[in-house]
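Worked example 3 (structure in, sequence out).
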């Protein structure tokens, strides 16, 4: 599938065989029982390597799996509060927020208002301030809790873990 007139050929042990025609390079690869793989198609002349292509693909997938194993994805967890929450419920939910932050996840705090609770958004801001105070050693609040506005019937604040 190599369309160039001449290619620079590199042996399987890394030595350069020089510039030759693709069919000569393919013949040299077949003599060794290996494949001819175009490595740098944009170079002038294109660079081809004599290698075991199946082994090369396997090692690439193995490296990709290994790098994926060490990756950490950030997950957003959500904890919902109500303005008239009891102290025990507040502490229980705040402990969950602390656990999520210790795992390295972001936490979305949502205060849900119903009916006449909508008339007193300051209760929600007070609750957000308590949550931020309870987690200030683990997280930082994205908008300041005093400047959070209503989004419909909800008040939302994001907490991200400290580095």
């Amino acid at each position: 599938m190599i369309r160039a007139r001449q290619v620079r050929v590199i042996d399987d042990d890394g030595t350069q065989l020089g510039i030759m025609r693709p069919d000569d390079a393919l013949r040299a690869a077949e003599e060794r029982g290996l494949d001819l793989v175009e490595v740098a198609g944009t170079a002038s002349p294109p660079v081809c390597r004599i290698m075991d292509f199946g082994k090369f693909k396997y090692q690439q997938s193995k490296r990709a799996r290994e790098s994926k194993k060490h990756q950490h994805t950030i997950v957003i967890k959500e904890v919902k509060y109500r303005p008239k929450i009891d102290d025990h419920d507040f502490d229980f939910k705040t402990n969950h927020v602390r656990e999520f932050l210790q795992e390295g996840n972001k936490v979305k705090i949502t205060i849900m208002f119903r009916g006449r609770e909508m008339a007193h958004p300051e209760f929600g801001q007070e609750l957000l301030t308590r949550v931020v105070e309870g987690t200030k050693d683990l997280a930082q609040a994205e908008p300041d809790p005093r400047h959070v506005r209503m989004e419909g019937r909800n008040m939302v604040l994001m907490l991200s873990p400290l580095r």
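Notes: The chain has a mean pLDDT of 90. The longest strand covers residues 154-161.
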